[in-house]
Amino acid sequence: MFTTPTFTTATLPPHHKCTDCPQFTALHHAASTFRNDDKMHLKHLLADAFRCQGLVAVHSTSAAFERGFQDDESQDADEGFHAAASDSESKTSKTNKNLQRRIILDYSRQQITGSTIELLFDLADRMGLNERMSELRCGYHINYTERKPVLHHLLRTPRHYDWSHKMVGGKARMDEVWDVLTRIRNFSVKVRNGTVRGITGKLLKNVVCLTSGGMHYGPEAVYEALSADRDAFMATKGRDTSLSFISNVDPVDFDVKTRNLHAEETLFIVISKSFEAVETMYNARMARRWLKKNLCKDPQSFTDGQIVSDFSDKELVEKHFCAVTADCEQASQFGIHSANIYPMFDWVGERFSVWSAAGMLPLSIHYSYKVMQRMLEGAHDIDEHFFDAPLGGNIPVLLGLLGVWNSTFMGYHARALLPYSHALSKFPAVVQKFDMESNGKRVSSAGTQVVALDDW
Fold this sequence. Notes:
- By secondary structure, the protein is of the alpha/beta class.
- It has 18 helices and 7 strands.
- β6, α14 (328-334) and β7 (341-343) form a beta-alpha-beta unit.
């Protein structure tokens, strides 16, 4: 369970190596037994019903999540839902009012036993996992190299969440997060109901995200996943809208993604933390040129690479561009109106961009803010499970420990993620990016060389 750390300054990484722990040695020997003893083959392990029953973890959604962490200010907003959506939601809310849904992790198909899991728990305890989790939640500088907190869970926290006993300065940070979310809600509602329009007065039906560095993986995966969600579908029904992502500097990618779009109805969102990424800014300039060319009344005016347009660059950018960035000044110099610039926080890594304005802005315009707020609520419910559930039933922790077991001790150098649901088809790419950026390190958090098991 969560306990507030007693320290008041940023903590230091663990000084000792996991390879020095007796639990590491025991796990190493256990893995050797699994590899060499035929009785430990998975086909025999699966025949043990008692073992299989013990290797299951269940998370039931909280009552607060099922009720919905409603933001009072958002209830009066017209989200642009199809009428049938509210009818459907009303019927469902009556049915599911007291229903708690379950997430089940069955890891009995892993080559592992209950005693092995206990050794992994002991190793995690020896390395201070609970303390590290508490530090993450409390906003201490667990990013030791940059001396920064890692607070992506704040992006998913309800407005009125009580941080008084969990994080120093948590309320102030939450106010910043919700200032951005409120702006996203207001803007997305105005785009969806037609209050905000393109330069010629047409509805903005097409959103194109320009980004690089893999920041599109999360938002694109959620976009694909929500296409199979009932409420998300109803929020787009009959609207004839589209959402696409361009992250390749190859102009062919830009051409393919925009060839069927009408410039008058297209909104570009430039997503770049520094607003200096070469690929992103190249595509942003290409988008500006594409708008200018396609909004020309006389196609013959596009000659020798020169465009004579009825609109200035400034007018086009102000009406057809938004930005998500940590450098608002750079975005403003590009010509994007200050009201259309949404900040990114330096305490959130780019790989978690789906929870920031980089994901929330385009997805709220496409699926509605109301749908995306429910996604944030679901993520917060899992955050609370991660921080509060005992390790033995903690699904994220179990998945992490199984990853350590398979890669470090069993020597498996690759992992396959095979989603049977088509809606999750882009999920493996997201996990791959998380895994590579978070775990693909040459040195430990303490700066010591990571030792390969073969060299241990």
